[in-house]
From TrEMBL:
Pfam families: 7tm_1. One of its GO terms (cellular component) is plasma membrane. It is a multi-pass membrane protein. One of its GO terms (molecular function) is trace-amine receptor activity. Residues 42-292 form the G-protein coupled receptors family 1 profile domain. Belongs to the G-protein coupled receptor 1 family. The keyword Transmembrane applies. PROSITE patterns: G_PROTEIN_RECEP_F1_1, G_PROTEIN_RECEP_F1_2. The chain crosses the membrane at residues 26-50, 62-85, 97-119, 140-161, 181-208, 239-259, 274-299. This is G-protein coupled receptors family 1 profile domain-containing protein. It is found in: Cell membrane.
Length: 322
């Protein structure tokens, strides 16, 4: 791998361009393009399914819809990652700003939505008698809207875009957002430490309750006492298990990125390492709908209805796909 200039006519003011073997470029283009198309397609199927079928209009599914929208946006971020394979930005400054804002908003919204999903499962499993009064469709919608609005304004506040006119511009041909050291610490606290701690604490509690309920169900006395609520608990526990897989995969994909970001604050991190963990972070958006395919029967039914164009028939939104 050798380095040349992004804009040779600008001399030393130009950023360094990474030159790789042609075969490596082709392989990277194929991999990133495939992930981008797969991410956009699968999450679009989730968006269409939950939006179209009224039987899926539940508080939990509206949270999944929010997660699918943020993952759908990440699918387009992969396109910009492809453009930056050689470490050079050839588009306009406006597109660079769009890329940076979209990256921050979509990832922040994903984190916020996963926190809401954890709260939803915590109430459903730990306080099932009051779940339907505490968690309603309207409250779920308002929570999602509030989450996205907060993420958008948070992004605008915390990002200081490197413009050509300021002293932060190190070279021509780059597209990065500058975070002040204080803003970097604040970002780590608000988008990593607090939400991830909340997610882990809530799901540990859900796991403890799930284990205790499973033991109670094996007791004949407990089954007699709880026979009116066991059926509800089983369905909620099943949903908690599926969403638990989503949360675990989410933590595994995003944690390395924040660890590298934290290390980068005290020492130099190779750009290849940062690119790897960032790609892993974005790849999580492709994994989520795959989890639904394998673990949600209703999603598989919805996909069949979409590809067979049955959703175009009148009254298809009322179909029982559960």
């Amino acid at each position: 791998m050798e380095l040349t200039l992004c804009y040779p006519h600008l001399g030393n003011s130009s950023c360094r361009r990474i030159v790789r073997p042609h075969s490596v470029y082709v392989l990277l283009y194929i991999i990133l393009s495939s992930i981008s198309v797969l991410t956009v397609t699968l999450n679009l199927l989730v968006i269409i399914a939950i939006s179209h079928f009224k039987k899926l209009h539940s508080p939990t599914n509206f949270l999944l819809l929010s997660l699918a929208v943020s993952d759908f946006c990440v699918g387009f971020i992969f396109i910009f990652q492809i453009l930056l394979l050689d470490n050079c930005w050839y588009l306009s400054a406006g597109w660079c700003m769009f890329y940076i804002v979209l990256s921050f908003v979509s990832t922040s919204a994903s984190i916020g939505t996963v926190v809401l999903i954890s709260i939803d499962r915590y109430i459903a499993v730990c306080d099932p008698l009051h779940y339907h009064t505490k968690v309603t469709v309207n409250r779920a919608r308002m929570s999602v809207v509030l989450c996205w609005v907060c993420c958008f304004f948070y992004t605008l506040i915390i990002i200081n875009y490197r413009k050509n006119t300021d002293g932060l511009k190190s070279c021509t041909g780059e597209c990065v957002g500058y975070l002040h050291p204080f803003a970097l610490i604040l970002d780590l606290i608000l988008t990593f430490i607090l939400p991830f701690s909340t997610i882990i604490i809530l799901y540990v509690r859900v796991f403890v309750v799930a284990v205790s309920q499973a033991r109670a169900m094996h007791s004949h006395v407990a089954v007699v006492k709880l026979q009116g609520s066991v059926k509800v608990n089983k369905s909620e526990l099943k949903a908690a298990r599926v969403l638990g897989v989503v949360v675990v995969v989410f933590l595994c994909c995003l944690t390395p990125f924040y660890i590298v970001e934290l290390i980068a604050g005290v020492t130099t991190v190779p750009s290849s390492s940062f690119a790897y963990v960032l790609s892993l972070c974005y790849f999580n958006s492709c994994v989520n709908p795959m989890i639904y395919v394998f673990l949600y029967p209703w999603f598989r039914k919805c996909v069949k209805c979409i590809f067979s164009l049955q959703i175009l028939k009148s009254g298809s939104s009322e179909a029982n796909i559960m």
